[in-house]
Write a structure and sequence with these properties.
SHC Adaptor Protein, Double Stranded RNA Binding Domain, alpha+beta, 4 helices, 4-stranded mixed β-sheet, 7 strands, 3-stranded antiparallel β-sheet, about 30% helix, 2 domains
């Protein structure tokens, strides 16, 4: 059974110095979420705190054997941002509790580690000058392990993103899953042009 001591927590700052009080607050807030993950032993949590102009941002990312959950909040107060980001993760866990348990059971039954997943991360907004051509401002590399479409949907929802890149276990191809405007999902399966 996992406990708060078994969870690796990293608190870091961007454009801000993480004070001992902030670090302690973030660690205590994350520890309150650990009650939902007593069935996992391989949990690590990264808390990133930053300030952009007058906005205080808290990003909390849980990693459990390849499954990621992410909560982000932007407020005028860093402590409130930590609370809101933590609350978002708690809502995700409550909403997807059954699917998370099925995912865990499926992984254990197959005797394999949980899959590494692709993180569809939004690039930070950058101001571009008038007439400037848009350009790639961030490149992200990641290792992926095959998963089925249902697991990819769960992962995308837990991350709160609109799209997700993954290796489809049924086809051994890289696919893109995306959320449609009608609330359903779309799946892009690339083929080579002949």
């Amino acid at each position: 059974m996992a406990n708060s001591q078994a969870v690796r927590v990293t608190v870091k700052g961007k454009n801000i110095e993480v004070t001992p009080a902030l670090r302690e607050y973030a660690e205590k807030r994350v520890a309150k979420l650990n009650k939902f993950f007593t069935w996992r032993q391989d949990i690590s949590v990264e808390v990133t705190l930053s300030v952009e102009r007058d906005t205080h941002i808290a990003e909390i990312t849980y990693s459990m054997g390849g499954l990621l959950m992410r909560g982000e909040s932007r407020t005028k107060d860093l402590y409130a941002s930590i609370d809101e980001a933590s609350d978002k993760i708690e809502r995700q866990v409550r909403r997807y509790k059954n699917k998370l348990q099925q995912w865990e059971h499926h992984s254990l039954r197959k005797g394999e580690a949980a899959p590494a997943v692709a993180v569809a991360e939004r690039a930070p907004e950058e101001e571009k000058g008038e007439g400037e051509t848009p350009r790639v401002v961030r490149t992200k590399r990641f290792a992926i392990k095959p998963m089925d479409v249902e697991e990819a949907i769960l992962q995308m929802e837990l991350l709160g993103h609109d799209f997700f890149v993954f290796a489809n276990a049924a086809t051994d191809e890289v696919n893109v899953l995306y959320k449609r405007k009608d609330g359903h999902y779309g799946l892009i399966e690339p083929t080579l042009e002949e």
